[in-house]
Amino acid sequence: MPLDEEALRRFQERLDEHTKWPSRYLFKFIVPQAKRTELLAVFDGKTYSLRDSKNGKYVGLTAEIEMPSGDAVADVYRRVSGIEGIVGL
Known about the structure:
By secondary structure, the protein is α+β, with helices and mostly antiparallel strands. It is built from 3 helices and 4 strands. It has one domain: Alpha-Beta Plaits (2-Layer Sandwich).
């Protein structure tokens, strides 16, 4: 899920146009089990739920977090974009 800075900038602009901050934002990601620790590090200290796939190869994370700004949301996407095999939903 590599995102370039231009795509993140446009995403953040759309968020800011349609959202009054602070606001809750729903993050949903799927990663291979081998990358679970990397994903959890991004959400350290936050409340989230995890669900393993039926075959156990993947784990899904869902987190609804109070975010202060569109920039803070984009920063989460920047951080997770370097995790190999991640899928954002």
